[in-house]
Amino acid sequence: MKRMKHSILPVAFFALLPILFVISPVEAGTIVVPGVTGGAFTVKVTSIKEARFRTTVHQQYDFSCGSAALATLLTYNYEEPVTEQEVFKAMFDKGNKEKIRREGFSLLDMKNYLEENGYKAAGYKVTLDRLSQIGVPAIVLINIRGYKHFVVVKGVSAKSVLVSDPAVGAKTIPRAEFESTWNGLIFIILNKKNVAKNYFNRDREWHVKEKAPLGLALSPSELASVTLMLPGVLR
């Protein structure tokens, strides 16, 4: 019996070798799959990480979620391609450098950047239902166990919130969980809504596991107070 056990294992292994060699990466993002007639065909594949960051700018530094969130909003929701580095440099050059080094970017930094580039933007206190009625993506600040983090809300349903998170990419969060981490403020662009509305609550975004808004507008001093509140040293 022992002799048979030792002989079966190599036979099974060698029987699998043709499949292992055929279903192998030929280049990044593709695999070769054997066909039923003995041939093979190439299939393009997308990793979960690639899918999650398809419409989200990946932040490069621990304290740069503000610039990455704004780059995400402009690039993938307003059809205005811009890199995180471009937004970061522009906001840092024009902002309060000491405060930015100490706390990160604020919504006022974002507002100033947008207005210099032809946009009108403001912060409002609203509910998720009201944001859903407004129907445009918004930057919000969430607090996860003391870690304050900017994300872009791209959709709202009865049970979940769809966000583009610069740290982990697109994801859905149970509505109650999201509301427990959110301060109720949204930061939105007021013009070019005809463009942005096309990117709110898109079906394809939800499948990745991969009118003037009503509410009390925030003053410049209130916008300036909404920052990352994270220590960091700019390099």
Describe the structure.
One of its GO terms (molecular function) is ATP binding. It comes from Geotalea daltonii (strain DSM 22248 / JCM 15807 / FRC-32). This is Cysteine peptidase, C39G subfamily. One of its GO terms (biological process) is proteolysis. The structure is a single chain. The protein has 235 residues and is α+β, with helices and mostly antiparallel strands. The protein folds into two domains: 2-44, no CATH class; 48-225, Cathepsin B, Chain A, CATH 3.90.70.10. Helix content is 40%, strand content 23%. The chain has helices at residues 2-22, 48-52, 65-77, 84-94, 97-103, 107-116, 128-134, 175-181, 193-196, 203-206, 220-225, and strands at 25-27, 30-34, 40-44, 121-125, 138-144, 147-156, 160-165, 169-174, 185-189, 216-217. The strands form three sheets. The protein has a four-stranded antiparallel β-sheet with strand order 5-6-7-8. A three-stranded antiparallel β-sheet has the order 1-2-3, with no helix packed on it. A hairpin with a 2-residue loop joins strand 5 (138-144) and strand 6. Helix 3 (65-77) packs across helix 4 and helix 4 crosses helix 6. The protein is globular, with a radius of gyration of 23 Å.
